[in-house]
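Regression check, magnesium ion case 426:
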Amino acid sequence: MSALVIVGAQWGDEGKGKVVDLYAPYADLVVRYAGGANAGHTLVVGGEKLILHLIPSGILHEQTKCIVGQGTVIDPAVLLKEIRALGERGVSTLARLLISQRAHVVLPHHKQVDELREAKSHDAIGTTKRGIGPCYEDKVARRGIRMGDLLDASPLGTKLEANLDAWRPVIEDLGGTLPDSTSIQTEYAELGEMLRGYIGDATSAVREAVQSDGKILLEGAQGTMLDIDNGTYPFVTSSNAVAGGACAGAGIGPTHITRAVGIAKAYTTRVGGGPFPTELDDDVGQQLRDAGAEYGSTTGRPRRCGWLDLVALRHAVAVNGLDEIAITKLDVLSTLPTLEVCVAYELDGQRLSHPPYERIDAVTPVYDTLEGWDDDLSSCRARNELPVAAQRYIERIEKEVGCPVGLVSVGPDREDTADLKDPFYS
Ligand code: GDP
Ligand code: IMO
Ligand code: MG
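Current build output:
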């Protein structure tokens, strides 16, 4: 068997959805292993756009089964909406989509607390307000509600009451009103009923795929720099977005993972607060935002834009054990006369090749200037068809971070891709 992890190598929104959609036809099973509806993964097929928040990005390929794994946190209403939207497009999910009974449920008060905290904080994280942090808090505190719980009304009521008791002082302290447990119970039991045909034993499904020599694609959400342990803490999400998170989040052993591919934009973006050393608060930043349509797929917020940060990417190569990088949005850099790439940080007179433990906001990026190109890249289907300056740009990335670049994406559509090959036989 082989299992390939696709992980965001920056601050999210690198184009993971597009790459998973491209690789899914080579896989038997796609498993989303972390995060929740904070993610927004965009697929563009024949000019038609689809944004998925919870359902794996392999869902458009009918022979591929999809699992939302135990490491995720699920807002059942969002999931149902996605299932229905796919149905309206003629994409059937029944018998192809399995939701882990162990995945935790995002409850109304998780979203309420997320919003109230963001509104009251002086140093807000800039979360997506999808209740992600509070839901993972419940999971770690061992009082969470899991998808399997939605299918059994009487323990659900008892568990919900205990859960709400724990949040009561927090919500009151934030000036909010505690929601009524009976109405949550009724609403969530109904949602559970509607999802009954999808919720099941994902652990066994993954084990069987391993035992039957299947090809498994593990789909990450967010990105390495947003990972709870490896990112720019505390300006991070609340889960392990990194490749290692795929083991616990999908229920697969590290010895089963055969390859890790990191997705990175040809520049850098970040949504929300927190340090961003190469951020461009100028016309070039705006040009990247305009050319790259850099507005959040989940919240619509303008993304902060900046030069490619090779220090962050080097870190991603290390902590994910990347075998390969897929570069996306190379087309967005076309027409810029010169391109800066951040090869190191400077902090207190010292040159750093990896991100420091803290004070990332105090570093000064050290840039090298590379030549730009004018050409439209969208018809390039192989790396050697790219303008020489673009080929040099990619070679420089490989040299600086010590990892080969495989696939290169030159536009949002499935077709706009250079060097696509079977990722299980690379
Ligand atoms: P994800 O969260 O990593 O799946 O990424 P998002 O879908 O949130 O954001 C990536 C955005 O870039 C989406 O709007 C994609 O359609 C778009 N995109 C992906 N690859 C390319 C590319 O090579 N060029 C351009 N111009 N857009 C791309
Ligand atoms: P995909 O999978 C980009 C960011 C938020 C915020 C921080 C914490 O589409 O790449 P949270 O709601 O998770 O508590 O917010 O993480 N964030 C993302 N940024 N892409 C994402 O997902 C993100 N998911 C969370 O903007 O800064
Ligand atoms: Mg996204």
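Comparison notes: The two ends are 14 Å apart (CA to CA). The longest strand covers residues 338-347. No diff flagged against the previous build.
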